Amino acid sequence: MTTTPRSILDTSRLAPLYAQTAPLLHWTGHQIDRAYLYVELSGRFLRGRITADTTPYGDLGIPAAVYSGRVHRFSVPAEIRGRTLEALIRRISPLLERLVVGSEWDLDSEGERRGTLTEDAAEARQEIEAEIERLDETDVVAVWEAGDWLRETRGDLLAALRGGETAEALCDRLTEEAAADDVVLGARDLARYVGALVAEIEAE
């Protein structure tokens, strides 16, 4: 009986992100957090688990696992679309497999395990980075501050609130309308903007 070889890549944690508009976008204040793809190596089974996460914009530190070479990290645009992320992973999967297969372990002078790459794996890593760099403006969503995006409709928003629409319902509606226009508004920024409109009405 012929069996199908099991893939050495585990992308199951990425799958739920593909249907999202901008799954790696985390906006705090006026800064967009940095986004990364991670390849977590399993030396025993020669497998790589692919994950994605964000770190605060000002955090430039290198995690210990990345420094030791047990995890490979690739910077990606935080505004990347979910469907673009899916297409990217599909394109670079053969390169990721070469990276995993060519990742080796050596002991340094202090007896600590350090990751090294074969020549082919190093080339694969460079090709992965090149593929990510080829992403352009069509692969990311537009991110707007609420005040800029809603400037021309401010009067209509005030009228809606005076007419009984709650601040929460208005935020949900505006988020959906922005998404329909392929725009992402920061949730906290939008809440602050709508909250200021409510305060303006209450002060009348």
Summarize the structure in words.
This protein is α/β, with parallel strands linked by helices. About 40% of the residues lie in helices and about 25% in strands. The chain has helices spanning about 65-70, 80-100, 120-135, 145-150, 155-160, 165-180, 185-200, and strands at about 10, 25-30, 30, 35-40, 45-55, 70-75, 105, 115, 140-145, 185. The strands form four sheets. A four-stranded mixed β-sheet has the order 1-5-4-6. Strands 2-3 form a two-stranded antiparallel sheet. The protein has a two-stranded antiparallel ribbon with strand order 7-8. Strand 2 and strand 3 (about 30) form a beta hairpin. Helix 6 (about 165-180) packs across helix 7 (about 185-200). The longest helix has 20 residues, at about 80-100. The protein is elongated, with a radius of gyration of 22 Å.
Overview in brief:
The chain has 7 helices and 10 strands. By secondary structure, it is of the alpha/beta class. Strands 1-5-4-6 form a 4-stranded mixed beta sheet.
